[in-house]
């Protein structure tokens, strides 16, 4: 019996074979140059490198992957809050340095110092209430309890403790800013009283007899000067006028005879 074994289809070395970039599977062995050769065809010269990159969705190229839900949500929220997150393409099990993070690494490497110690914010996530705990501050050796003169006990000072109570230049600058803000808030600025003014919308404030437009009329058949209620009072039978205006407007009778009804608002009088 004879068995004939044929090698898979090979492409020509000189000419090559056209390969559709959208194919997911090929039935022959293309060369490396063919697989990673640039695409032929019309190119949009106005496209940037980011826009010309291959993508299967609007924001980029997404591939299926298995990620723990909690770890993914932790890094997503950390990136939204602090601006940095773990680089998924770097193995972070052996080392935890700035190379393992992407995003605002420079901001994360800044030290947060107080009067006791300085800690780095790198590696802090949104699920941690504060920086990771470091070694406790060391105290000066206080000797044995038998030595009464040299024994310090719990009253021993820290190694890096400063005896001076005067704040440093940076602390003094912060204190000055806080004091200036408090003084500015506590200062009551005196507001100038608003100027009261009225606008007269009639041609003349006095008639031909020298009477003011606020003069109580006496030729209407009713005594408008008295405070007594008339003998006959009737409900209104029709709507004569409606006063309209902006908010916070009140209609008041001026003077008491109700002969003039101005519209009074908090800013102006008309």
Can you tell me about this structure?
The chain is mainly alpha-helical and about 270 residues long. It has a domain at about 70-130. Helix content is about 15%, strand content about 5%. It contains 5 helices and 6 strands; from the N terminus they run H-H-H-E-E-H-E-E-H-E-E. It has helices at about 30-35, 50, 70-80, 105-110, 170-185; strands at about 85, 100-105, 110-115, 120, 250, 265. A two-stranded antiparallel sheet has the order 1-2. Strands 3-4 form a two-stranded antiparallel sheet. The chain has a two-stranded antiparallel sheet with strand order 5-6. A hairpin with a 4-residue loop joins strand 3 (about 110-115) and strand 4 (about 120). The chain is flat, with a radius of gyration of 44 Å. The model is unreliable at about 110-115 and about 265-270 (pLDDT under 50).
What is the gist of this entry?
With 270 residues, the chain is mostly helical.
Based on helices, strands and strand pairing, what is the structural class? mainly alpha
Calculate the terminal CA-CA distance, rounded to whole Å.
119 Å
Q: Note the total helix count.
A: 5
Determine Rg (CA atoms, Å): 44 Å
Largest sheet: 2 strands, antiparallel
Indicate the low-confidence ranges by residue numbers: 111-117, 263-270
As a percent range, the share of helical residues equals 10-25%
Order of helices and strands: HHHEEHEEHEE
| Strand tally | 6
Order of neighbouring strands in the sheet with most strands: 1-2
Overall spatial form: flat
pLDDT averaged over residues: 74
Strand content: 5-15%
Region (Disordered): 161-196
GO cellular component, one term: catalytic step 2 spliceosome
InterPro entries: PRPF17 (IPR032847)
GO molecular function, one term: mRNA binding
């Amino acid at each position: 019996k004879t068995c004939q074994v044929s090698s898979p289809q090979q492409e020509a070395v000189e000419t090559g074979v056209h390969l559709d970039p959208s194919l997911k599977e090929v039935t022959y062995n293309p060369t490396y140059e063919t697989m990673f050769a640039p695409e032929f065809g019309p190119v949009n010269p106005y496209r940037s490198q980011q826009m010309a990159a291959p993508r299967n969705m609007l924001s980029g190229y997404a591939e299926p992957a298995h990620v723990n839900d909690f770890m993914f949500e932790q890094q997503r929220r950390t990136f939204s809050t602090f601006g940095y997150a773990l680089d998924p393409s770097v193995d972070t099990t052996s080392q935890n340095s700035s190379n393992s993070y992407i995003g605002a690494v420079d901001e994360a490497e800044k030290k947060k110092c107080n009067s006791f110690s300085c800690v780095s914010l790198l590696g802090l996530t949104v699920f941690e209430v504060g920086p990771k705990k470091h070694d406790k501050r060391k105290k000066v050796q206080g000797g044995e309890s038998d030595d009464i003169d040299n024994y310090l006990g719990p009253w021993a000072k820290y190694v890096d403790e400063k005896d001076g109570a005067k704040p440093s230049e940076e602390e003094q600058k912060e204190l000055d800013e806080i004091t200036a803000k408090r003084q500015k808030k506590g200062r009551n600025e005196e507001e100038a009283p608003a100027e009261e003014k009225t606008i007269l919308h009639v041609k003349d404030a006095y008639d031909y007899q020298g009477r003011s437009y606020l003069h109580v009329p006496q030729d209407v058949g009713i005594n408008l000067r008295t405070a007594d209620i008339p003998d006959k009072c009737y409900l209104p039978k029709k709507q004569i006028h409606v006063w309209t205006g902006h908010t916070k407007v009140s209609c008041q009778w001026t003077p008491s005879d109700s002969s003039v009804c101005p519209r009074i608002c908090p800013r102006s009088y008309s």
